[in-house]
Amino acid sequence: MSTPLPDFAAAQARGALDFVMTDIASLLRLTRFPATEPWWGATVRYRFDDPLGRFGVSYAAPSLDVAFAETVIHEVASFEDGGWLVPLEDIADRWVVRYQRSDPMLKLLDLTGAALKRLGLNNDICSASDYAHTQCLSRAVHEQVEQADGICYVSRQLNTRRAVALFERSGVSCHQIAEPLESHPDLARLIKLFGVQLI
To answer: Which residues contact residue 63 at a Cβ distance below 8 angstroms, ignoring those fewer than 6 apart?
Structure first.
C-alpha cells in the first residue's frame, strides 16, 4: 500500500517545505540526442513524469557521476564477474549537455532527508520500481507548489548523491554545444569508479 500523498499546499502554508536553490550551470544530462534537448518526454515512463502527460519532466544531475550511473549503467550495463559490462557503442552515442536559463537560479522542492520525512514520506519515492505513486506525487507538487521549478531527490543508482527532475515550466534550454562522452576527461575516472568494462 502506497504512502498517502502529502498536502503540499498545507505544508507550504505552515512553512514545512524546504527548497534547494540550484544554479542551472551546475546541472548536466547525458543524452543520445543532444539536438532535441531538453527532452520533456512524450510518454509517461519515468519516476516523476506527470501521470496524465500534461506537463513535461527532464531528468538532470549535479555531476557526471550521477548522470553516468543513472543512464549508462542503469539503462544498458549488465553486472557480470564482479563488474559492469558496457557496450562501447553506448559510450560513443552519449553526449554531455548543460542547461541554461535567463534566471540561473532554480527553486527545487527538496524531497531528501528531514525535508522528506516532515512530509510523512520516506526514500521509497526514490527506490520503488513502481512509478505510479511518485508520478502522482510529482503532479501534486506541480499543482500545489507553483514556484517549484522541479524536484530534488536521492539518486537511486548512486544513493549518496542527489538527482533532479525539472518541470517543463522551469523554462530551461540547453547550450548549443554538447560534449561527446567518449572524449570527456572524466570518462577514465568513471570507468574505474564504477568498475566498468567496455565491450
So the answer is: 28, 161
Give the residue carrying C-alpha cell 531528468: 59
Count of C-beta atoms within a 10 Å radius of residue 28: 20
CB half-sphere exposure, 151, CA atoms < 13 A: 30
Q: Which phi and psi (to 5°) does residue 62 adopt?
A: -85, 0
Q: Which residues of 105-121 are buried (b: 16+ CB within 10 A; e: fewer)?
A: ebbbbbbbeebbeebeb
Angle at 34 between CA 48 and CA 192, to 5 degrees: 80
pTM of the model: 0.94
pLDDT per position in the chain (199 positions), as tens?
A: 467 899 999 999 999 999 999 999 999 999 999 999 999 987 899 999 999 999 999 999 999 999 999 999 999 999 999 999 999 999 999 999 999 999 999 999 999 999 999 999 999 999 999 999 999 999 999 999 999 999 999 999 999 999 999 999 999 999 889 999 999 999 999 999 999 999 9
Q: Which residue has the cell 505513486?
A: 133
Distance CA 178, CA 187 (A): 15
Question: For residue 61, what is the DSSP state?
Answer: B
Beta-carbon contacts of 119 under 8 Å, excluding residues fewer than 6 positions away, are 6, 8, 11, 16, 17, 111
- For residues 6 and 97, is the Cβ–Cβ distance under 8 A? no
